[in-house]
Amino acid sequence: MNYARLVFAGIRKPEVYLYNTMLRGYSLGESPEKALFFYKHMRKTGVNTDAFASSFTLKSCANLLAVFEGKQIRCRIIRDGYEPDVFLLTSLMDMYARCHYGHDAHRVFDIMPRRDTVVWNVLISSFLQNSRTRDALKLFEEMVTEDGPTQIMLLACLLFRLALIWGHWI
């Protein structure tokens, strides 16, 4: 990323896709805090963010457990009119879930204009990560009723439940 940063610094007026490239690199790498810096720099220099920029930055917030910054980005998403974007809302849900704000993740889930398998799986995983097995199973049953099951989530729910039962034996 150091070389990419040097190349980026040499560009007179970087466009949004260049910022997105840097944001993605930092959000997936070892320096997610630099993605937050780039996002702020992007806003400060007048480059309009898009759904991708916000999504990459939310991923960094999740990696850093920076829920305050994530909530600020959510406000920006609403202000910029990207709230109906399911991809972006899924990133927001994931950020809340990984920061242990399951109730906020659930609220985002409730306002989703449409729910695909990924959306359901993010919330179910959130419940499982926070030891809310009953809520995960209840939501899984709701998903099966609405969309049909996914084999991966069924396996994950069963394995987590098995781990809980196994733990009680030890």
TrEMBL record:
PPR repeats: 15-49, 116-150
Organism: Amborella trichopoda
Coiled coil regions in record: none
Keyword terms of this UniProt record: Repeat
NCBIfam families named among the record's database cross-references: PPR
Any GO BP annotation: RNA modification
Molecular functions (GO terms): RNA binding
Keyword Plastid tagged: no
Pfam families assigned: PPR
Protein name as annotated: Pentacotripeptide-repeat region of PRORP domain-containing protein
InterPro entries: PPR_At4g14850-like_plant, PPR_rpt, TPR-like_helical_dom_sf
